Structures are given as C-alpha cells and as structure tokens.
Amino acid sequence: MAFISDRLGRVKPSPTIAVTTRAAELKAAGRDVIGLGAGEPDFDTPENIKDAARRAIAAGKTKYTAVDGIPELKAAICDKFARENGLQYEPAQVSVGTGGKQTLYNALMATLDPGDEVIIPAPYWVSYPDMVLLAGGTPVPVACGIETGFKLTPERLEAAITPKTKWFVFNSPSNPTGAGYSRAELAALTEVLLRHPHVWVLSDDMYEHLTFDGFEFVTPAQVEPALIERTLTCNGVSKAYAMTGWRIGYAAGPVALIRAMRTIQSQSTSNPCSVSQYAALEALTGPQDFLARNRALFQRRRDLVVAMLNAAEGITCPRPEGAFYVYPDISACIGKTSRGGTRIVDDAAFATALLDETGVAVVFGAAFGLSPNFRVSYATSDAALEEACRRIQDFCAGLH
Ligand code: PLP
To answer: Rounded CA gap, 192 and 312, in Å?
Structure first.
C-alpha cells in the first residue's frame, strides 16, 4: 500500500507471534493445542514484587518519571552490575526502558545510518535484524550451526567485520538455542574485537539468570574490561523475574550513547511505566531465592525435553547451557512425507504439519535465520511438555 512507508516495507511482523496466534485460533476452534512457542516463564511474578507495585500505587507513584528511569532504580541497576558482573557504572550511564526490547531499539535508532552494518550471529532472536532494518541499517547474519554448538567462532567474527560494521550483537544464553558462551569462548571473540576499535558491542544478557549445571555467566565488558568504552550491556527483569508484562528493561554504557537513547525515548514513549519501575526496583533489591528455584525447575524441564526429543526419529537435540529453549536439528526429516500427506520440504512445512496433525505449536527455524530446525520453549508444565514431546515422537515416527 502506497500509504505505508518504505521503512516499514523492509520489516516483517514477528513470526513467533504468528505461531502463537495460529495456535490460539485452533484452540478457539476446539482443538487440543499445546503451545511451545511462547517466550515467557509460565509462572507468576513473585509476591514481594507485586506488593511493591501495590505500595507504589497506594503512595501515588502514578505520574511521569524521569524519561529513562527513576534514580532509585538506576542506583539499584548500578549495584546489580557491580555485584553480579563486576561492572562499574554510574547512574548517568544507565537507561531504563519499556522492556529490554525498547532499550535495544533505542540504541539502534540512536546510532545507525544507512549503510551501517550490524553483525548478528544466526540463529538469532527474531527482532534483531528487523530492528536494524527499521533503524535504516544493514543486518549481517553470520551462520552458527550445530557443529559449533550454535556459537560464533573468532574466525567467523573476524571474517564478518568490515569498515562499515557498527555493532556486533552478542546474546548469551541465546534465544532461540539456549547456547551459552564460556569465559574462554567469549574471550576468543573479545580478542578479535580489540583489533577492530570501530566495532561496538551490543550485549543482550536477558537470560543471564537462566543457566544450568553451574554454568558461569559472563558478559563482554567483564571478560575484556577495555571494551567497556564501546559496549552497551543490556538486561531486564522480564525473563528472570517472570515480569514480561510489566515491561521493564535496562542497559548501561557510555554516557553519550545513553543520552542519545534518552532523546529517542523522550520523543516516543517517555518514561517506562512508573509502577513497573518500583516493581523492578523490588525485583533487583529484594530476596533473590526465586532465581535458584527457577533455575532448578527449568533445568529439570530442559533435561526432560532434550531426552524425549533425542528419542524421536530424525531429530538431534543439543543440550543447551541456558534460557528456556532448545533448537533441535531436523535435517533427517527433510524430504519425507507426514502421515497427513504433507511433504516436509523445509522446517516451516514441518512446523505447520506438526501443528495441524498433532496440535503441537513450535516455531520453525527459518524465522531465526538457521534451518532446518525448530524452537521449543519449555516454559510450560512438565505434563504439557511430556505430552507434546510424545506427540512429536509419534509425528516423526509417521514420517516416511
Ligand atoms: N532479548 C532477547 C534475547 C529476548 O528473547 C527477549 C524477549 O523475548 C528480549 C530481549 C526482550 O525482552 P523484553 O520482554 O524485556 O522486552
């Protein structure tokens, strides 16, 4: 439609939302659907956090706040970075936005000019390339297959850097694979970055607290302190504290970048929800035992899903270090035909046939830039996961 901007024409709506919508339609039509598409914890926000929000409302904290966050929250974020990541930031280096999504978006909008390249390891969180396109930049996906555990190698990073590279996007543990970089793996990447001082690092640490088997979480500016001058360290309360609906994310980096991000935010949404900021303050400063309980729960589910998917014919499912996703490979299923008569030409066909024939909703790999795979979110009950995996096994057994 001519009325719609060229800018919008470059992007596509989120495919993860498309799958969730299709599953909801089938459910509404009376089908027994198990959704493994959602990217959010299946349990409620902890009570102490909800109480803090109620207190904030009662105290009348319901007005505009400073554009990029109340001072108490910024101070708590600085404490969090110092305590958990060994990173020293001042409040002026902190930006609070409406979800992690907005802080990432602000950063890209504030920095990208036409022709600027952004290196994005694939598979990637679906929003990175489209946000880059909306901001006028050029996404440069770099394939990271199952053979490297879905992780970027220093050689591939080096090869992707050009004089036009502005950002390198780093996400560990990763959505959609759950892959987490060890300190040594990350150090190999930061060594490359040290040789290219024009490249900035956008580290998306959203799944920091969801790691398993004692995995040590590390972030680029911590592994290579010299990078702090050109790193935006992004995080949020959505996934760790089961607060996806509250919409609070934050980032820390050089003051000039934070100021530029504030300008973008001041002319779009202004401050993030005042009540949610007080809730996030409680999340970061209140009891943290919720995190360990969470981790144990997700680790058990990961083990369940990995074992059951590997028992399905034609599926190879690596065991990830974190997040609440697995990203099984289905190369051995491609070219076969399902019991319902669908030829599995690619992972989109696999996901569509799986949903139509068994009622299990997953997101196909092409949406995340690496095929043939699909993403399972195991942020759902053990019973639902077991039943879904049983149906996937049965679906695969029927491929011929
Ligand atoms: N980064 C990654 C890797 C994510 O998976 C998500 C949410 O799915 C976000 C950022 C955005 O989180 P928020 O809900 O805080 O905007």
So the answer is: 39
CATH superfamily name and code, 6-44+290-397: Aspartate Aminotransferase, domain 1 (3.90.1150.10)
Whether this model's pTM surpasses 0.85: yes
Nearest to 179 by CA among 215, 143, 155, 203: 215
Domain boundaries, the chain: 6-44+290-397, 63-285
Q: Write the CB contacts of 379 (distance below 8 Å, at least 6 apart in sequence).
A: 38, 39, 40, 41, 42, 298, 324
Q: Please confirm whether the linkage preceding 41 is cis (ω < 30° from 0).
A: no
Average pLDDT of span 105-110: 98
pLDDT digits (tens, 9 = 90+) for 46-55: 999 999 999 9
- Whether ligand 1 lies within 6 angstroms of the CB of 231 is answered as no
Q: How far is the CA of 101 from the centre of ligand 1 (A)?
A: 6
Distance separating alpha carbons of residues 42 and 383, to the nearest angstrom: 13
pLDDT, position 245: 96
Which residue type, as a one-letter code, is found at position 250? Y
Of all protein residues, the one whose alpha carbon is nearest to atom 3 of ligand 1 is: 175
Is the pLDDT at 16 greater than 80? The verdict is no
pLDDT category of residue 330 using cuts at 50, 70 and 90: very high
The identity of residue 231, as a single letter, is: T
**Ligand 1 midpoint to CA 127 (Å):** 9
User: Can you tell me whether residue 324 is helix, strand or coil?
Assistant: coil
Give the domain 63-285 fold.
Aspartate Aminotransferase; domain 2 (3.40.640)
Whether 175 is in the pocket of ligand 1, judged by its Cβ within 6 Å, is: yes
Mean pLDDT of the chain: 96
pLDDT, tens only, 166-199: 999 999 999 999 999 999 999 999 999 999 999 9
Question: Ligand 1 test: best mutation among 239, 244, 325, most atoms within 8 Å of CB?
Answer: 239
Q: Kindly give, in sequence order, each residue whose CB lies less than 8 Å from that of residue 239, ignoring residues fewer than 6 positions away.
A: 40, 41, 206, 207, 209, 210, 323, 324
Dist CA 238 CA 245 (whole Å): 8
pLDDT of res. 291:
95
What single letter denotes the amino acid at residue 366?
A: A
Q: How do 325-326 and 374-377 pair as beta strands?
A: antiparallel
**Is pLDDT of 37 > 90?**
no
